[in-house]
Amino acid sequence: MIDIHSHILPGVDDGAQTVADAIAMAREAVKEGIATIIATPHYKNGKYDNEKQSIMAAVTRFNETIKQHKIPLTVLPGQEIRIHGDLQESFEKGEVLPIAGDSQYLLIEFPFDHVPRYADRLLFDLQLKGLVPVIAHPERNAEIIENPDRLYELVKKGVLTQLTAASVSGHFGKNIKKFSLQLIEANLAHFIASDAHNTTSRPFRLREAYDVIDHEFGINAVYFFQENAELLLNGQAVYREEPERIKRKKFLGLF
Ligand code: FE
After folding, report:
1. From ligand 1's centre to the CA of 27, what distance in Å?
2. pLDDT at 251 over 80
3. Strand partners of residue 223
4. Distance from the CA of 73 to the center of ligand 1, in angstroms?
5. Is residue 89 helix, strand or coil?
6. What pTM was estimated for this model as a whole?
7. Which of 88, 155, 192, 241 registers the highest number of CB atoms within 10 A of its CB?
8. Confidence of residue 109 (pLDDT cuts 50, 70, 90)
């Protein structure tokens, strides 16, 4: 299995704090059935500024460490990019790191409470450069929860999305789980990833998430997400179904 979003690199953000933490996470990942994991440290989120070069170096070091410990896991570089007005400039400066290092896919995070007004234009401009934005955990964004059409409009224009496994498995609450399943049903989700930060409060839960998806939608839905992660890793075009609007009788009242 491939995990495209994790905070496994030691000492670079709010994920693994020490090398020992990171090794524990690597062992846990292998137990989950993960063979390849993308390390996606935070970039420009207001607290952490992990730029491309430093992440590349840290990934090389960490791969040597897990090899020494004989852990059968491959770590690839990536970055969780907080959306910001100067993102295109950051990209030109070479600070931005696509998923797996050299793919066309960028893992982009919105602030938790809203979707910036400039997001549509910025994401469109990135697509004109041949890049494909992948929105991290839209199911946890307050504005999208309140108005899922906001996400529908972005997906309609070619943006992809990644749900967090713990959202699907219900660890962020019943409502987030319900919303995650609605997003899957409406073809508004393209990847499932752990966004794991540690082995305690924010572990992988990928298997659990796929069990829920299998139960709710059948095994083909599981394959859809797993194959998409593979296609992404190979820099190929991923599967997309025609997005639909989420129909709701009434706002869920999540907050
Ligand atoms: Fe993350």
Report:
1. 19
2. no
3. none
4. 19
5. helix
6. 0.96
7. 192
8. very high
